[in-house]
């Protein structure tokens, strides 16, 4: 028989001094109650109760056993109540894993507002550019960029979309010209992650259909924040996600290019172990994440389709007007995305690599 249930039955018999009354209180038959007590005595090899036709009394072993069992059952009840409370009230440590750059640029304000709203939850954030095993590593929530989690025990939910944008600094465009067609990227130094080195093919969709371009990478970094820094310094053309460069585009520090062309979007998803018995801290954090990104304008639209903020269009126009003549005597490339492509002056390509972790 179930030992824990037998212990509960024994305590009830001892408290009420009767098998019959205990059976009524527990909604069991008297025979079942008797078997539970007999099973305990058989397991312990000692008598716990003295039985007469008129009354029950505890043996010395029974009194010792009753005292200890009470503590065990009280502790167990306390643990159960604590677990139930944690499952219904947001409390405890919330372990989160997210990609490094997304975490630094987009996750911090969400965690801050969540912690203010639920002060009994302690966020524990791990940033890592790898496929984390949520169950094995004990994470409550994972955020993934452009990854698919295939596991029966893991639930995924779309969070937001990252729009990939071709961009460069005004200073770079002033020196090397403004590409208006994906083919122009062949003669510009491109900034990329190491996995994209060696001429990975980029697939653009535009007014003339699908355009495939194999870019030549001049600078590599294993972290997109480093690529952003290179782009801000005018070291080449970069293809970066909207969640990383949204403010740079708004301020004019970076200029969006190839406005008539689109690259595949990057889906950002939430992952968490199982829907069953989801703790309140996990459920409320997921809801908070979804709500935050639903109302964040910079994540809710494609920044390439919006009109440039005041100052950016003027900066681009000034950049184009100031472009020097090309070596072959051709006119500089117009900033108009709809204008036919003109010859580009091939920009010098710095040769360096930055592949160490940040």
Automatic annotation (TrEMBL):
Residues 1-59 form the HTH lysR-type domain. It comes from the Bacteria. GO terms for molecular function: DNA-binding transcription factor activity; sequence-specific DNA binding. PROSITE patterns: HTH_LYSR (PS50931). Residues 331-358 are annotated as: Disordered. The keyword Zinc-finger does not apply. CDD domains: PBP2_CrgA_like. Pfam families: HTH_1, LysR_substrate. GO terms for biological process: DNA-templated transcription. The keyword Repressor does not apply. Keywords: DNA-binding, Transcription, Transcription regulation. Belongs to the LysR transcriptional regulatory family. This is LysR family transcriptional regulator. The lineage of its organism: Bacteria, Pseudomonadati, Pseudomonadota, Betaproteobacteria, Burkholderiales.
